[in-house]
Amino acid sequence: MQSKARHILVVRKANSDRAARLEAEIGAWLRARGHSVTAISGGFDDPAYALPDLDFAVVLGGDGTMLGVARRVAGRGIPLLGINFGRVGFLADIQPEQWEKGLADSLAGITPERTCMALQWKVVRNESTLAKGVAVNDVVLSRAALSRLVNMDIGVDGQEMCRLRSDGVIISTPIGSSGYSVSAGGPLLYPSLNCMVFTPICPFLNTIPPMVFPYKTRFCIDLLPGTTETYITVDGQEGLLLQVGDRVEVTGLEDAVCFVGKEMPFFERLRTRGFVTDMASGAKHK
């Protein structure tokens, strides 16, 4: 069945000759079927992400490339199909040698799509927005090189939550909960949930445990005098040096990102990452 003509964004992994060659092949295949194609390199901001008529994206890369593209098109309902040029590929699950069938099935609507939430964040300095954006995995506030604590006032939906002294704090989505957050003692969340994890990093005197909040929760984090040099990091890929007096605001965006492809079963994903051992998962269930 011939799919309708679309404007398709093709994003290749930066500095990968193999991905560049496949990008050219896929572009020719799509144009031969009547689709409009815009091809760019990943890892950078590009005006192509803002094109108003984009309605599908093919990403040639690993999960890092997928995260970068997902952040830039979040909230627009653009399906993202990943062709894996990374190591494991939780988000990009089609192998390069299977690209033609995978792409044809996706464009024809045969391949399932799944949505997930994201995080919307901004940094306010002197009552003006200094920076803002979207995170698919997590937003992290952490200390820099010196072994001193980050001093923060943390509010939740207009209520005072706590004054925290720690190495930092992580706010993560369900799909990001299996990354930095779980290493810092946070819980693992089922990927389809709409909620956020708040995980303090080595809090002084264990003042507050990790907690799970509804996705609509709005966090306000104020950096207090005496804090050490502090950075905000988004998905482990983008960073900004903060100052005393800065406020970081974070809230959830429901169904912000759409991935094409059958999701890896939750416990298989946990086994792949070593959270569940083969011995612990030996029972057979149907």
UniProtKB/TrEMBL annotation:
Reaction catalyzed: NAD(+) + ATP = ADP + NADP(+) + H(+)
Keyword Transferase found: yes
EC number, as in UniProt: 2.7.1.23
Cofactor field: a divalent metal cation
Family: Belongs to the NAD kinase family.
HAMAP family cross-referenced by the UniProt entry: NAD_kinase
Protein name (record): NAD kinase
Gene source species: Desulfovibrio piger
Biological classification of the source: Bacteria, Pseudomonadati, Thermodesulfobacteriota, Desulfovibrionia, Desulfovibrionales
